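Memo to structure team: turn this sequence into structure tokens by end of day. - J.P.
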Amino acid sequence: MSPPFQCIDCGKKYKTPGHFEKHQRSCKAGKRSFAEVLEVTKRLWEVKKKRRLDVERIQNDDEEMPVGEHIVAERLDVERIQDDEEMSVDEHIVSEAREVHENARQANSEPSLAQRKAPRAVGPPRRYCQPSDSEDSEDDNVRAVPGAAGSSSRSAVHPSGRHSQSSDSEDNNVRAVPGTAGSYLWLKPNDIRRLYPVPSKLDVNGIRRSYLIAGDQARLSHDPDPVLTIQDLIAAGIPLIATCAERPKEAPLLAGTSSYGPFQSKSAFEVAEWFWNSNSKSFLEFQKLMGIFKQPSFNLSEVVSTDWTQTFHSLGANKDDLSDSDGAWICDDGWKKAKISINVPFHHAMSRPGNISHQVGELHYRSIMSVIREKISNADDATQFHYAPYKATWKPNKSSPEVELYGEMYTSRAFREAHEEVQRLPNTKINSGLERVVVGLMFSSNATTLTHFCEASLWPCYLMFANESKYRRCEPNARLCYHVAYFQTVPNSFKDKLRERNGGKLPTENLFGFCDREVYQAQWSILLDEELRNAMKDGVVLMCPDNKERCFYPRILTHSADYPEKVSAAGLRQYGLLPCHRCHVSRWELSKLNSPLDTERESDQRSDSQQHGLMSQARKKIYDDKYAVAGKPMDDILKDKSLQPVESPFATLPIPQGFSISSALVVDLLHEFEIGVWKRLFIHLLRLLEAVGVAKSLSAELNARYRATPSFGRDGIRKFGVDASAMKRKATRDYEDLLQCAIPAFELLLPEPHNTRLMKLLYTCAQWHALAKLRLHNDLTLQLLDYTTTQLGAQMRTFERDTCSKYQTVELKTEADARARRQGSGNELGSSERRPAALGVFTIKFHYLGDYVSTIRYYGTTDSYSTEIGELAHRIPKQWYPRTDKRSFTGQISQIERRQARLARIRRDIQGSSSGSPTSHASGKFRSQATVDSSYHIAEDQNDVIYLNVEFTFDPDAPEDPYTTDFLPKLKQHILSRLLLKYGFLERDLPPNSWESIVLGDRLYRHKIAKFKYTSYDLREKIDVVHINTPQCNIMLLNGRCTVGSREHPYLYAKVLGIYHANVSFLGTLPDGSKLVPQRIDFLWVRWFDQVQEGSPEFTLDHVNLSPLDVADSIQFVNPMDVLRGVHIIPRFTKGLMKHQDPKSSWIKDEKLWTEYAVNRFADRDLFMRYQYGMSVGHAYMRDDFPVSKIPSIPQDFDFCILPSTKPPPKAPKGKGRAKATEIPPGDHPSEVVSLNIPAPAPTPASAPSAHIQAPNTASSSRQQIRTPSTHQLTNADVDSEDSDREVDGAEDGEEYLDDMDDEEITACEEMYAQELMDEY
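Reply from structure team:
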């Protein structure tokens, strides 16, 4: 398949439109060619224009001609003569243009534009003319449609028979339209609609949306977030035309029916709905059932008389499996079963060679087009389904330029390019006159175990729609991850069939691996059926809930999967020499993340057309020439690219610009970083703690620090367990929490200078994770992410070189035990001896971190396509599994899925389609305007009363309470200042000591909880809960003394000691002479934190300490409206507890106070963005008069710390034995450092290699040793023993991947990739 974008002037080829457009703007050959041809082309068009005017002048002098079909025939003759004359007159001009254009191209072998241009048609064929009423049009691409206001044409035939010129002679949107008295408007063969960019006005947040609207569409017919006005459309130049006549409408699904599906009554339906939607026998579910029984319309006899066996069968069965009467209510195609058949090649060296077709199982799947129809017809989801994408830009203030925003998938560049490509398709009978809509398909697949104590597993494939908001897709209860298939693996019985076919001899593992890949591709071939391909090519017309027909074009945008499935989909070898599916980076160079040597990422990308050609060549040798699936013949073709001989169904999708599965396999933050890079780093840090000091029990100290770390937020930092360092069934969220709180926990556990190096690395990891997981990016944050990626690569390599190499580390006990379980057979375990272990972080997952910036720019933020969405969706089939018979559970789970979906559809039909606000998302409602003041909520009850005359009665014998010193004067002064500010006055407008006129009614009312609403960085409405006497009692406020250029910190931090309200009266008069009525005043009693400046601000957290009680303003009162949100404060454990604890107070809960605290800006993404000044869209206070954050840049003398290549030495030729370690060629010496004219570690002399290279027990020695192939690989008949450079996937690489999984994930992986990955280890 040729690349979709090629420059016709210089011949360069590009895979992405962005690079192609950039090249077009700077192509010198194109500019020269255009300049030289321009003059010649101008002469050509002048002659044509003169000829046309002469013909029209002659025809206007003729007498009136008849109308009808004679006019059509005569017009054809006139145009043929006209074209012949133009061609003869302008022949020398065209020849000259071609000659000049060819000379401009010089030695380019590609044909010129003039050469590749199709010959000019002599006249329009008859199929482009409107036939008479008695004739039927036979053209599928062009048809006559009713004329509309604003339509134009180049030429029209008037009833008089004379030709008239349209006012818009240059309009390309010409179509054949019937006029009056038999007149016709002519349709061009390649009819392309005119597209108009329509920008909206800036909203209150400074956001502008730019749509691309077709000229015949006039306006957006449906927009969940309406922003465009009629004035915007007129300013963009869109003619306000009348819409075309609607086609006959089809009745919506279940419209007008009063039935309850297979149920005879409403009572039976509601009981069934409760049963299938209930997953546990909880008291809440019991109350729901009682609520059904208490309904006045409930009839128990109707429930009892129902045949539940037959009813539930009908509820989950396909329509074709039921009678016409029983299945009349079903509106979907249900689940299908297809036989999975593959051709198994037996090579010529086997006893019975040949290609044999084998059936390896059944695939349970749903038609993707059926899912699309069901989605489009859903009235509830239609209100939030985006038909037209847009580009979002943000202008923080008047003086700043607009930057692009990256968030939702329907605003991504990938979606917009697909939308533009569909809009520019020629008009056909199917799409003519209809709005064209791209249906963005997002797939996610990953295997999961259904229980904890058995090996039952399921491999679901989920389908999500990019037209919907990610905030809804990410919520599991929204059920927007549609089950479309349950993939099957090769069963164990398949081995018996192959052994029987091979004369009783078991074939090689390479053949089984080949069959695994063939089964995977065969199942995708079933899913990507002919109906879907036709819809991709020609579109499909569907009736929408708004009673309008639209033409929908499905487009696959992303496919989320873990690494083993990615390489299976892309046709790569597992952990091959070139393990990346996007570029040709070597497996020995994976540590070069964002360094100057990391050039393959941009300059050496994979070519799909080249790879498909190599795969086809290899498959021809396998199936036609009877070669083995592995061995030297296959390596000669595929090894250089690390490919497998697969035939991908994605390569043949009918997309005009081609489809690249490698590009669609997007990054995966969950597997690549959270349980990939970070998990490996965390485990190695535990090894280092054991190596540094066993006697000091550093691991126990680490556990104690994590236990003392307070929780934060509802979905933020959870309370850590007793043993945080124990690797016992931790979920991904646990590793995320460990990272977010790692800096205070690991501080000073390692000696200097390793501690400083580790603190910088942990800060960079946390910052990279926060940036990569943002839900709303812009150009500024992406620049910061790119800078952080460079820092992460350099600091990780520095930590490996300068810290990890200084200690001899071994496996953790849990790692050794897990390896023993994997290596054991039956009830016998393998060796649990703790082996040497290195950092081992430089895997393919580390390399993938450099692709996040480009992926976010093209597909939007990572939360749209993270595999975390699929992992959360696994909860649903796990809830269904106990309802099955535990044997044939795949088919039964598919029936349960249909039952729940159909019950929900019946419920919607009963209640009618709800409006469904598009702003009610799971993570908070959308706020149309970000405000500085945060609203709050404090309860209105007055149950907890504090009597002031009792609390503040003077007792000479009682010790003085420093907390309540000047309590009442400070409170009254605070209340008076708020009252004056509320009515527009200042304190100086009143006489001194006016606060004494404040009357509190001798009582205060105490509360324990206050809720603060705030607008997050991504314009969502969030709530923080402040609970006194708990760790979640800290708040942050704006510092009024901080301005642009000042050294003041922009935020103030405080600990809430109490939440109160008082019924306040003012006995005095205001400056204008008016009186105040009594009113309720809410206030917070707080103790301030003081800033502690220490270290470099770039890689350190903010450090604070509690203000001493003897300071006058240490305790004050705060207006709740001034609170921004809650903040996560962690003790700085290295500073210890305060030597002198504060005295006890009856107003304050007794607790241990620490000397210093760290403000954890990484607790959640919104808190992190509060410190990226000027980059946050939702934080309105940052736009004006606020410190501006400058994005740091990599300095010229930056140490990238390029590590030596880990490539092992080449094997000795056959018959000469293996090369000794001292015979490594100089260019491959492991201690050699590449010179880049940048500071790098000093090279170690060849005579004295570094200690961690030579020592057999050091951390990195295991990676430097030569790997030996396993026994079955050495004796494999399909492996050429003479191929000394054969690429073998050894156990070491498998262990790298398995170390990232727990036992449950390993079991699922064994089910998915048993023959390909697991059997080798």
